[in-house]
Amino acid sequence: MRPEPVLAISGLVVHHGGVRALESIDITANSGEIVVLLGANGAGKSTLIETIIGLNVPRSGSIRFHGEEISGMAPDTIVRRGVAVVPEGRGVFSSMTVRDNLLLGAVPGDERSHRLASILRRFPVLSERSSQLAGTLSGGEARILVVARALMSNPGLILLDEPSIGLAPQILRSLFDLVVSLAEEGFTILMAEQNAYQALRIAHRGYVLERGRVVHRGSAADLRDDPRIAEAYLGASR
Amino acid sequence: MSLSLYYFVNLTAVHILMTWSLYLPYRLRRLHFMVIANMGIAAYAAGYLTTVAGWPFGTILPLGALLGATTALLIVPVTADAPPFTVAIVGLTLISLTTLLIENSEIFGGTLGLFGIPSIHRDPSAGRLLLLAVTWLCGLAVAAGIAVFERSRWGIAASIAFVDRDLAESNAVNVRQLSFFVQLAGSTIAGIAGVLYAFTMRGLFPGFFSFRYLGVLMTILFVGGYTTPWGPFLVAPLVWGIPLLLPEGLQSWRIVLYAVALIAVLMLRPEGLVTRDLLRRITALLRRPQKSP
Amino acid sequence: MTTLIAQLVNGVSLGSVYILLVTGFNLVLLVARVVHISYPHTVVLSMYAAWYGMSLADNSITAGVLAAVFTGILVNAVMAPIFARFSHRGVQADINSTMVVSLAIGLAIVELLSHGFNNGFPVSFSGFFRAGGTTFGTDVLHLSVAHLLALILSVGLTASLFFLLYRSAWGRRARAVAEDALGAAIAGVPVALTQRYSFLIGGTLAGVSAIILAALLGFASSTLADLVAIKALAVSIIAGLGHLVGGIAIALALGILEALAQGYLGGTWANAVALVVLLVVLLLRPKGLFGSRL
User: Fold this and answer.
1) Where does residue A66 fall: left (phi above 0), alpha (psi -120 to 50 degrees), or beta otherwise?
2) Alpha-carbon torsion A191, A192, A198, A199, what sign?
3) A173 vs B270: CA distance, rounded Å
4) Cβ contacts of residue A83 below 8 Å, gap of 6+?
5) Ranges in chain B, pLDDT < 50
6) Which chains form contacts with chain C, at 3 or more CB pairs under 8 Å?
């Protein structure tokens, strides 16, 4: 019997500012998978990520995380359930130290110091800068910090919203290598990404969104080989 | 006309004017509380000039407007572009300062008040009717001015700036200039209202021009609806009149009732009772062609 | 010289109260994103509660203190869900709405004080709160119990608040919410709960401020609420909305200015001088001297 998906979204409809931002979205993500959401600006990728994390309340449909319905829950409740998000942009609290940023991750009190030590061992660059203000970090270091903060809660699902924005190619490659290693460790990753070429290079499966609807779906290889996808999303990024 | 009806009708007009003086700056999200101070200054100036210097009402009324505008010109160049909270606190500070200065000035009667403001006509009864006419004419003039503003490019720009200031500025709207104009207009209207109030009541207490009166005006503005001048116009008689019908024991608690109404409306119907959408629907209903029999 | 030193002492004591007022106001502003105009009114309401508690308990100071602090916390706890209606999941929706709502609450409080206590007359404090007296004195320096109380409580509470903000888990969450409420929510911070705690802490500061004011002034009145409110709010803006350290500096400066004006000009004109200075500074630097955190 197939194991239950970590994330199962069905029939999701979201209205945003009086507009139907998402229409009949059906998406799944299984344990250890990297699932990518592709699409142009305004396709609905970020809206979907924001809805999963609880920033938008869906008009209808369901979002199930390990079988539990999470749509309508407050964001912090969803995070405590095991869903973590790496938001678009810097995402760090600039006026707080790296250490304080990490400790914000949803961790029970008694595990906090142990988890922090483990994360700092994994990310030496953060360990070196733990007393520095997060606002002084470079773009790449800030992105690592946000990923590390997400990992503090030992999440079952990690959402990445446009992780490539503002990053130099070399830093982006390191970040995507990190994403691959996380998936190999068993984390489930759902990544919204405009850089379709890089995203399909590391993903297992993908969904293509257009005007709030899923228009294509399949394995990463199938999407790469699909001439319609190649023309629309891969031509300029090769 | 009975005295109580006269006071009710005339004071309602004054309150509508004062609420419009708040309404205009709030089109750009600025709570220009200074208008209470403008009203107080104009009222006391009117009271002093007519009781001591014998100036006639006809001269004092435009002077009230001028006074409102002049005092505003000292403040509005800064508050036109200031953050909303600063504008509000400057206004509250001016209200406190004005009240404090009046209370400690013998020439204005101090805390006891200024009395003996004469009727605008030899015959007090004719004077009341004349003042009623002048007050409502002023109201009509201000209403016409607001209507012209709302239909103008500036009125449309104000609606855009209310939602998104950056969007307005990127459409070549000088928001600072617009804000300056509406705050100045608000203060000028308040100056007129102050003079009309002085001659209506024919006696002044410094305690009237206070946060309490601000509470009354805020209730009219927000309960009536801050997106259209019709809201204050329709709701002012109710907000002012309903507490007058209450038992005497409850009347002294009317500010608490206003506060509760204000909070309730902001929570349940934030744009107020009369909204632009409602007006649009009523207009559409009235324009619907009649079916022939 | 004696007058100068005496007024400086008074000024520092008065400034201490303003520090607590502004700090409590700024805390709620930063964390809950609410412009709590009625916060100073809560302080004066707590003063009345202290008077009432003492009058019921045979002038017991403990009863007065407990009544004041309890009232400060309770009133803020009641206000918190009202303000929460104006934000979506803790992220600020409309600053003007919170201003208008808190203004309405402030008006209601003043009206309550005008009619509901002591037939509308000001209330005076007796016993300990009127101790006056000299704790220690030289030819030039006299310190009363009230002065010492103001200094010790103000310094102690402000230091405790900063400790809480920079050394505790709640403080970490509060600083995150203050910087970016949306980002804090998706990082797993319970934003609404964090904000509610800021109201409770603010309420505690309000209650203690009430005790100090009662000791310094010896009376409370409904008109005191509006006057204290204007000064506390103006100090917040002059320092820069949400600037905790700036607020402390300006609050102290205002207290000293007011006391000096009181000593050399007399009561009413002292208030007028303070208001004029506040107005001028507001107009010269409408966004604050140290920059707004809003």
Assistant:
1) left
2) positive
3) 49
4) A52, A53, A65, A70, A155, A156, A157, A159
5) none
6) A, B
Domain extent listing, chain C? 2-284
Q: How far apart are CA B76 and CA B182, in angstroms?
A: 10
When pLDDT is cut at 50, 70 and 90, the band that residue A2 belongs to is low
Question: What is the Cα–Cα distance from C42 to A26, expressed in whole angstroms?
Answer: 52
The tokens describing A219, both together, are 């394995």
What pLDDT, in 10s, does the model give residues C100-150?
A: 999 999 999 998 898 888 888 888 887 655 545 555 555 556 677 777 888
CB atoms within 10 A of CB B238: 14
**Measured between beta carbons, which residues in chain C are less than 8 angstroms from residue B88?**
37, 99
- Asked if C175 lies within 8 A of A103 by C-beta distance, the reply is no
pTM given for the model: 0.86
**CB count, 10 Å around CB of A29?**
23
Q: Which residues of C touch A95 (CB under 8 A)?
A: 175, 179
For residue B248, which amino acid is it?
E
Q: What percent of chain C has pLDDT over 90?
A: 32
Using DSSP's 3-state secondary structure scheme, residue C102 falls into: helix
Q: How far is CA B286 from CA B150, B282, C141, in A?
A: 21, 6, 79
Instruction: Give the sign of the dihedral formed by CA A61, CA A63, CA A67, CA A72.
Output: negative
What does CATH list as the number for C2-284? 1.10.3470
Please report the ipTM that was assigned to this predicted complex: 0.88
Q: Write out pLDDT tens, residues A173-196.
A: 888 999 999 999 999 999 999 888
Please name the residues in contact with C149: beta carbons below 8 A apart, sequence gap of 6 or more.
C211, C212, C215
